[in-house]
Design a protein that fits this description.
The chain has 4 domains: about 1-55, no CATH class; about 55-265, Lysozyme; about 365-440, LysM domain (Membrane-bound Lytic Murein Transglycosylase D, Chain A, Roll); about 465-505, LysM domain (Membrane-bound Lytic Murein Transglycosylase D, Chain A, Roll). It contains 22 helices and 10 strands. It has helices at about 5-15, 30-50, 55-60, 75-85, 95-110, 110-135, 140-150, 170-175, 190-205, 210-220, 220-230, 235-240, 245-250, 250-265, 295-300, 305-310, 330-340, 340-355, 405-410, 415-425, 470-480, 485-490; strands at about 280-285, 290, 320, 325-330, 365, 380, 395-400, 435-440, 465, 505. It has a two-stranded antiparallel ribbon. Strands 2-3 form a two-stranded antiparallel sheet. Helix 5 (about 95-110) packs across helix 6. The chain is elongated. The protein starts with a helix and ends with a strand.
Length: about 500
Amino acid sequence: MRFVWLVCLMVSGFSYSQKPAHLVRPADTLNPDAFFNTVQQSLTMFYADYANQNNYDSIINSLKYEPNQVPTFSDEVYCQRLEEMSKRSPFHMDCNPATLSTIKFFATQRRGFIRVVMGRSALYFDLFGEKLAEYGLPQELRYLSVIESGLRPQVKSRAGALGLWQFMYKTGLYFGLEENSYIDERMDPEKATDAACRYLKQLYGIYGDWNLALAAYNAGPGNVNHAIKRSGGKTTYWEVRPFLPQETQGYVPNFIAAAYLITYHAEHNIVPMEAKVHNAQLDTMCMKDGVHMNTISQLALWDIEDIKTLNPVYKTAFIPKMNPARCLTGPMEKINLLVSLEDSLYALEKALYAPKPPAPKPIVVVPQDSTISIDSVQVANVEEDSLVPSNDNLQYHKVKAGENLRNIALRYNVTIEQIMEWNGLQTTNIYAGQKLKLFSTQSAAPTPTPTPAPRPTPPAKKYYNVKPGDTFGKIAQRNNLSQGQLQRLNPGVNINNISVGQRIRIK
């Protein structure tokens, strides 16, 4: 697990410091599970505090800004702040017209963007900082991902660059980022960050100037070398800048503007978007077998969209079985739950997605009699013949919301593999409204010839002869009829004028 070091630190702390009252117990009665649970609770509290330790609102509140106020400053103030940033960084945060105009644009027109990326930074900046420190690179390089992708690991450029650090396919392969049908490590935050650090370190080693290294990261070393040659051999970004592609001319000013506004966001009344989860609250679990995210979602009561957000390396909602094992990233409480229910996880996956065993092959029963006629050969099971697709038993199924291949296969008495083969599916992922081609595995029963229903025998008619003193109403009452029923049986009769001896139909 990711935070074993902290567990060790806490264990050592329990050994040498005053123990809380709830931990004091005789050594011979100490429950290891209870002790572990106590450590886990302490870890959870630690990470919750860690995630909230930066109170961004405190500075803003002290400045007494109105909620939607957009502060403005003189060029002198901007230049002073850039100078302070340059003192703490190997980057030259040059205060020139290009940089100033870009900062002012971000501070007024891109305020929402800064709010959003600062919220997303809670998930990635700690990771970036660790990797940059590992390679001895400036911490300011974390802002490069802000400009490249807006801290969105699944964003793809028009040119095909992908991930937090926007690697092209060939560049990603060069730096060891794997891609196959299931994964694309250009979208893996940790591995892509490691590759970006190696690439940036390589570029700085070539140019010896961080701004030129950033330009080469954006435009490629070939374009930068060409610009240097056209500039007459200049060696700084600002001298070479007029000869670079137009996009790259704005690249370093954008980087400086992002670094400036994230550093001085409070002074500009920019309140970061609230982060759903902090990097420090995450843990990982490596899978021993292939698992669908839907299975994980059901078992851990974990929203599948949140699973995908924290695991962008997977192209589909399936974590494949690979060597080395692929891992799942998530909040500690979800990962701890899945670890404790690991056997149940794989059992549920098998129940939901395991294919049916293949149908048995036909068994030919041959009589022991030496004389064999064609009529004497019996086929014990002909089910396999029905597996051959035929237009005679072709039908279509429209996928409904919540359906998967397993329950569709059960409904039609076929296997998941058959449905995938008939429809050219590479994965088990289907969507509502999708039309699936299906072939029934059972011979169609002959359609019975419908037997015509016997014609109903019309009821026998019955009549009543009007007697002296009879009225239409009395006749109806005497024969358990309403006047309306009696009138419908006698449509041509004037109910107010009947005569003695007149025939009235009563049935």
